[in-house]
Amino acid sequence: MTKVLVLYYSSYGHVEKMADAVAEGARSGGADVDIRRVAETAPQEIVEGAGFKTDTAHPEIESPDALAEYDAIIVGAPTRYGRMPSQMAAFWDTTGGLWMKGALVGKIGGAFTSTASQHGGQETTLFSILTNLLHHGLTIVGLDYGFQGQMGVDEVLGGSPYGATTIAGGNGSRMPHEQELAGARYQGKRIAELAAKVAG
Prior knowledge:
36% helix
């Protein structure tokens, strides 16, 4: 069975909720799916002062070497000024040994994100994640326009051809809309299906 890793960082739960939807989609595509999060690197006083969500059902990833066990890796992180946050960047900065061995070459990859506003850097954040995957030799699968839910303009919704997205609102009170979760499921399923073809 194809093995898919959904690897994420989430400060307030928005990306965590998207990660669950991506995993659900990948499972519907026939994959065995693990959800892991990267370590929190912010000082404890920042975590507490900013009210970060610290309760989660998902364990931390054991080590970067675990990435080599999967056929597909789907990475989610919120934006920090138009790029991935330092927590996720710090994890990828530890993967040099895998890069040296070409351990991830030929795997399937994708990304998803969350921003506070419509124009808060969704696509630049996705690309900041995807560049890491491309350097490791992964083949990227975005949120293609087979998912028609990203075509409407009647309400404010996330969605990008580069990956599933959600909009959290300035104070973080808006959790992912069902249409955004549907996009995450669609992308997860597409990645799982393609990974099965490549691995098979």
